[in-house]
Every structure is written in structure tokens, then in C-alpha cells.
Amino acid sequence: MNPGSQTGALAIPAPKVAGGLAEEAVVSPLRSLRSQGRTRGVVALLGPAFVAAVAYIDPGNFATNFTAGSRFGYTLIWVIVAANAMAMLVQYLSAKVGVATGSDLPELCREHLPTSVSRGLWVQAELIAMATDLAEFVGAAIGLNLLFHLPLFAAGLVTAVVAFGILALEQRGYRRFELVIVGLLGIVLLGFAVDLALVRTDSSAAVAGLVPHLPGGNGVLLAAGIIGATVMPHVVYLHSALTKGRIVCRDDAERRELLRFQRLDVIFGLGAAGLINLSMLLVAAAVFHGSRGSDVDSIVAAHEGLGRIVGGGAALAFAAALLAAGLSSSSVGTYAGQVVMQGFIRRRIPLVLRRLLTMLPALIVLGLGLPATASLVISQVVLSFGIPFALVPLWLLTRREEVMGAFVNSRTSSFFLGLVTMLIILLNSYLLYDLLL
Asked: Cβ neighbours of residue 430 under 8 Å, at least 6 residues apart?
């Protein structure tokens, strides 16, 4: 993201001293930003978590959340809440890695883990990136199809062009890229705020859905898909890259101050993503579950059902949110892939070439006319299996003082991160057992 273009010590001329000589008083970037005022100084420090949050509301979430809501009603609300809490913890610790070490997680894996392990992590991360891009790319194409009636393959090509344009903003500084991504996130949030306002939810059933319970009939599969669509492995790597050089700190005191704002960034950014995911399931449960509708087995069916049962405004808001989610998350996913490659193996390829390579599976799905929503759900399950490969290195490295220095994880943080990792591994193991029997 080329953060170095907008960071570094700011030299402010000091008053002339005796003899006509001038000295420079060096002001740190953090102090310069904080001097902009209470509101502007805080807003200027926010952004990385909002970029990461986009990956948590990609079209894969539409598929899993609407399928879960239509099939099981409010039962799986607790999965969304739990997954979002996991995401907040994981993303904050990833952000802390960048601030504390000045390196991103893939770079630390290369430096501190055996070469064979680091290269293995890179290979699986690239495969996960393709699964990620499948969901995001196909989802954006479906959004264009619903809004403008473009054939899916043509819509996929348009999606590629727009994604290239968004990625080009990264070359002009991190802030422009962040603002565009935040704007698209706002469109998704607004779209589901409109849909939620147009439907009548069952508050008591929603509260009951906070009690952990896994229903039969592919309930475990959908729970794994929701977690896979929420805790995204590629942005675990990316978040550390977004913070490692965005604002250069002079000492540990400034790093601690910056980390306080990173926590605020995560609360707001991931909180918005959590509200969007929750709204998806609430809308699906209110409109399609039980006697009011039917089991929604595709994003297109969800769009048509909203238009038929709720009205054209709800369907339009849904399609606009889907398109914004697909475009933004696709751009973020491509950049994350670049961070992964550069960090693990010190190689870079042009973003255009990476975009072309990762979108091939999605174009194959669109070109062959394969079931788009089913492909999205399966891609999220694949993502769920990739999560431990990002979380285990994060857990191992953040608990090592020689890596993190004064910012090494406390026993409490290490415990909860280890617990999250273990829960996901156990859930995936049960899922595999369920699928094979």
C-alpha cells in the first residue's frame, strides 16, 4: 500500500538562533496528526481496521448468512456474534504486530520459522486467496447482473476493470485507498439498514438465538461457513502490513499510544462489519424462514424474494450492497495476496497480473454457469480450513519476547487467541467428520 509515501518524521523549522543559524525541531508523525485536533486527530489515525473489515462482509457472507437465516431462522445468531468477537481479537493482535515490530506477519514467519514451514504457509495462503477471490468476484458479478441485467460473464469482466481502478488508488497513497474502501463499506451498511427497516424481526427469537446451539441438517456446515466468511485468513496477514509503516513511532511510548487508537479502529471497523452480518441473518430470518417464505438457496433467490415479499426498494438495497461488498473486498483481497507473497518469499508480481490469475477460477465458474451461491458457500468452508494456518503463527510469534519486545502478548491474550484457534480447529475437524459420514 506504499505507506512510506505518507509517513516519516516531519521537519518543522525552528526559530533562528544566535549567529543566524536555524535548527530543525523534528516532530513525529504521530504528534503531527494528534495536533490536528480532537476529532481530526483521531480520524486520521483510523482506517486499517475498516480496510480489513471489508473482507468480513464479502459476498461469501451474503451466501452463508442468508442461507443460515432462511433455513434456521435466528438460531445461528450466536455464531455471528462469536465469530465477530474472534475477529476483533485476531485483527487487533495482527495490527499490534505491525506497530510493535515494524514488520508484517508473513515477514516474521519467514524470519523466525523454518524455511519449509514458511514456504508451506505461503502455498496454502495463495490457495486460500483464490478461494477468497472466487466469493468476492462472483458476488460482485451477481450484483451487477441484478442491478443492470448484465450477463454474468460480462459482469465478471466489468468487475475486473473496476477492481483494477480501485487498486490503482493504492499507488497514490494509502489514505485515498482507505477512503474509497470505507465509502463502499458505508454503502453496504446503508443497504442493510434500509432492508432491516423494511422488515419486521422477532426480537424474542433473536435474543434466543444468542444461546449456543447447532441445529441438525447441515447446521455445522453453515456454522463453519459463517466463521470462514467472518474470520478471514488473508486479512490476518494484511492488517499487520497496513499498520507496520503507516505511522512511524519514535519510541515505545508512542507505540502504546498508537495501539490505543488501533483498538478503537478495530472496535469501530469490525463492529460495523458485525452489524452488517447480523443484519443479513435478521433480514433472511424475518423474510424467508418458516411460513413467510422459503429456504433461500441462492443470492438471486434472496434478491427476488425480497422484491416479491418486501418490495422493490429492499431488493435494490440488497443488490447495491452486494455489488459494493464484492468490489471492495475483491480489491482488498488482491492487495493481501501481494503482501503474502512479498512477506513469505520476497517476491512481487504486478498487481494486474495477480488480479488476472486469482480471478480465473471465478471466471470459470461464471463461464460454465455453475451454481454461484453453492460455489460461494463452499469457498467459505475452504476459508475456514485456512484460518488455523494464519492463527497458529500469530499465536506463536506474539508470545515471543524476542519478536514483540515490550509488546509481547500477556498470558490472557495468548490464552484467548489459543482458545479461538483450538475452537476453529475442532469445528473444522467435526465438519470434516460430518461430511465424510
From this structure: 220
